[in-house]
Amino acid sequence: MPQERPEVIVCAAIKFELNNTYTIVVPMVRHYSPDGHRIIAEIEHKNVIEEKEQGFITNYGRFVDRKEALTIAKQNNQIKYGIGYEPEELYSEMLY
Question: What pTM does this model have?
């Protein structure tokens, strides 16, 4: 019987509301990194979007907020860098 893999953080993401209708999640290397900016610019060019929440995507494809992401990252020893204080939320700078 295969073992279930632990859920880990795989990338930063931002959740947006598109045209006041539905939600989209844009994955990116870091929050508002150049790759994310390009995607957001294309979406903004054709639609009206509003940022709803910054967070992360796990290896299960699940969007999690910064607080839950910190718990997951700590449980799986993913924190590589300190930011000078003990935060209550995860920041991509702490991972890579």
Answer: 0.81
CA distance from start to end of the chain: 33
CB of 13 closer than 8 Å to CB of 57 = yes
Count Cβ atoms within 10 A of the Cβ of residue 22 and give its class: 0-12 exposed, 13-18 middle, 19 or more buried: exposed
| Residues ≥6 apart with Cβ < 8 Å to 60 | 7
**How crowded is residue 49: how many other Cβ atoms within 10 Å of its Cβ?**
18
Residues in contact with 40: Cβ distance below 8 Å, sequence separation at least 6, in sequence order: 14, 16, 26, 49
Across the chain, what does the average pLDDT equal?
90
Domain ranges of the chain: 9-94
What pLDDT digit, counting tens, does each position of 38-67 carry?
888 888 887 778 889 999 999 999 999 999
